[in-house]
Amino acid sequence: MSHVNIEEKLFQNRYLVDAERPHIRIRQPSLCEKKCADQQCAVCCPAGCFTREGRKVTLITDGCLECGTCRIVCNVHRNLDWEYPRGGYGIQFKFG
Amino acid sequence: MIERFDAIVVGAGPAGNAATYTLAKSGLHVLQIERGETAGAKNVQGAILYADALERLIPEFRDEAPLERHIIEQRMWVMDDESYIGTHFRSDEFNKPPHNRYTIIRAKFDKWFSKKVREAGALVINETTVTELLRDDRGKVIGVRTDRAGGDLHADVVILADGVNSTLARKAGFRPEIEPKHVALAVKEIHFMPRDTIESRFNIHKGEGVVIEMLGKITQGMMGTGFLYTNGDSVSIGIGCMLSDLMAQKTTPYELLERMKAHPSIRPLIQGGEMKEYAAHLIPEGGYHAIPQVFGDGWLIAGDSGMFVNAVHREGSNLAMTTGRIAAETVAELFKAGQPMTAANLAEYRRRLDDSFVMKDLMKYKDLPDIFHANKQFLTTYPELLNRSAYTMLRVDGVDKLSKEREIFADFRDKRSLFGLLGDAFKLWRAFR
Q: CA–CA distance from B402 to each of B6, B364, B390 (Å)?
């Protein structure tokens, strides 16, 4: 059931995007491509921030819900720099 | 000039607000730092508020707090793909004030709680992320660094109520990275519809609410639960599973949520609603064994950042408020006695937690997570068997009832064997006793 359109869900949310300052970064993209068998970030992220093109993993944090899942599932190579966004930026829940 | 506080609290969720409120009421010079635009902007919960923990802090909260509905009926559904079998408990006792629990919308509720914190005399700053803890050359925590210019702030003690990810405690080496088997990932949507639609669909009057907790096939064999809660003019619907299980089954939680929303017993309840927000959150469900060190020289941990969640009873925010309050009471009493905020003195916090319902309850269920991890039949086989048994017994088709009973028993024996059935009963008894 990969036809669920996550963008449609995220469209309802309120974000203050910190342009050009992503709060999560892949340390070594080549590690994902060459060494990570499961690429769990692309599977588990509830906002679909990680997408795959072949073996290449791309991260766009604009729709991030700041849950922390990607950091915890990246438990073999620990290949993410994970911080919260700067104060006032990122998801601002209307209801939570 | 460096401004100095008696205490700094990081985070404005239930733990942080309870701690800051208690410290301010005790007359301490306290600063609370929150990274959201307002308190609540970063917080996600189902959400059920248990009155007791808040009542101990703000006895008159019912007159002021934004509460959605008081719960008069609890439904527990064991789901198969086409059906559910379950229990409903509804009582007019729950209509008698003071009410015991409520649905809340956290963004509204946290804003109110934050107002009470400010009224109590605390200094609250929003839109500020704490990036690390400041420590002296002996390792004692002496303050925090924020992402504001010149953003170092000093205090005698720092209470970390920064949520499940607790980046600060992790960076400081106070606790290890969370393991996927110790945390559940939950996703949730809120659907708006007219109040009277909710009231007729759930057979309730104005102000009354229903909660539905669900387990079984909706989690596809993974350890987890689904829920549906009635708010004033919306329903919250969500599902969560242990992250280790989601990894093993290579599933995203929102696919589970979509399937759950399409279940023939759930779809009519949310039909026509307007979805206005989608949220995700980690819930620390590792239980007793996953609780990290919760105090040290100049610091304490409260709420989700200390993994204080009772997954069995779906309790979290009340444990957060309680641990936040007890952390603050410990600090306030040390201040009053003129004692320093050393690890030896702050160890009193852990002793008080051990004496409270928080640790007693977590201790009671300490082996439960492991038992469910190792025995997936409780989450798939039994829900299926129970639903099929009900269907067999209730379908009138010319087959006599004794034959139906035999069929059901044979079904159970085939799936689990007699030995397996006895073993499962023993495991459940041992886990819950």
A: 73, 40, 14
Interaxial angle between packed helices B357-364 and B317-336, expressed in degrees from 0 to 180 and rounded to the nearest 10: 140
Using one digit for the tens of pLDDT, what is the confidence trace for B32-81? 999 999 999 999 999 999 999 999 999 999 999 999 999 999 999 999 99
Mean pLDDT of A31-51: 96
Token pair for B10: 């990081």
Q: What single DSSP character describes residue B180? A: G
- For residue B390, what is the enclosing H or E element? helix B381-394
Considering its fold, how many domains does chain B have in total? 3
Containing H/E element for B386?
A: helix B381-394
Whole-angstrom CA distances from B36 to A50, B33, B42, B126, B165 are 24, 9, 6, 6, 15
Q: Of how many residues is chain A composed? A: 96
pLDDT in tens, B299-349: 999 999 999 999 888 899 999 999 999 999 999 999 999 999 999 999 999
CB–CB contact A6 B254 (8 Å): yes
**Are B403 and B418 within one domain?**
yes
Please give the ipTM for the structure prediction.
0.97
Average pLDDT over residues B274-297: 96
Residue B186 shares a structural domain with residue B262: yes
Q: Is B206 on the interface with A (CB under 8 A)?
A: no
Determine how β-strand B123-125 pairs with β-strand B130-135. unpaired
**Which of B164, B277, B283, B307 is the best residue to mutate to test the A interface, defined by the most A CB atoms within 10 Å of its own CB?**
B277
Residues of B in contact with A48 (CB under 8 A): 252
CB spacing of A93 vs B106 below 8 angstroms: yes
The answer to whether residues B280 and B347 belong to one domain is no
Is the separation of the CB atoms in B204 and B164 below 8 Å? no
- Name which CATH class applies to A6-91: alpha beta
- Interchain pair B247, A93: CB under 8 A: no
- B81 found inside a domain: no
Q: Do B259 and A9 touch (CB under 8 A)?
A: no
Give the pLDDT band (50/70/90) at residue B429: confident
**One domain for residues B39 and B154:** yes
Decide if pLDDT at A2 tops 60: no
What pLDDT sits at residue B15? 98
pLDDT of A1 strictly over 50 = no
- Binding-face residues of B in 104-133 toward A, CB within 8 A: 105-108, 110, 126-129, 131
Q: Which residue of A has its CA nearest to B188?
A: A96
* Partners of residue A93 in chain B, C-beta under 8 Å: 36, 40-44, 106-107, 277, 279
Residue of B75, B45, B82 whose CA lies nearest to B259: B82
Closest CB to A9 among B131, B148, B278: B278
